[in-house]
Automatic annotation (TrEMBL):
Residues 2-77 form the TSCPD domain. This is ribonucleoside-diphosphate reductase. Pfam families: TSCPD. Its EC number is 1.17.4.1. It is an enzyme of class 1 (oxidoreductase). It comes from Ruminococcus hominis. The keyword Nucleotide-binding applies. It catalyses: a 2'-deoxyribonucleoside 5'-diphosphate + [thioredoxin]-disulfide + H2O = a ribonucleoside 5'-diphosphate + [thioredoxin]-dithiol. InterPro entries: CHP03905, TSCPD_dom. Belongs to the ribonucleoside diphosphate reductase class-2 family.
């Protein structure tokens, strides 16, 4: 799935959900090292667990962050 981010440095998040597990997360743009770290940390994690851990994280004075955007993307994907 592809998700166009809103309000953060990265522009797009690509990921798969297989057997309710997060797989193959890749961010386009943003802080490369940090986003690779997030991608590796959530790999194989239960979708709902990833959402609960990432949702609501803020970046500086922004009302969202790249991890929060991933939570939004995952929520959108499982709602479909």
């Amino acid at each position: 799935m592809e998700y166009k981010t809103k309000g953060v440095c990265s522009q797009m998040i690509q990921f798969d959900i297989e057997d309710n597990k997060v797989r193959n997360v890749a961010f386009t743009g943003g802080c490369n090292g940090n986003l690779q770290g997030i991608s590796h940390l959530v790999e194989g994690m239960d979708v709902n667990e990833a959402i609960s851990r990432l949702e609501g994280i803020r970046c500086g004075f922004k009302s969202t962050s790249c991890p929060d955007q991933l939570a939004h993307a995952l929520k959108e994907a499982i709602a479909k």
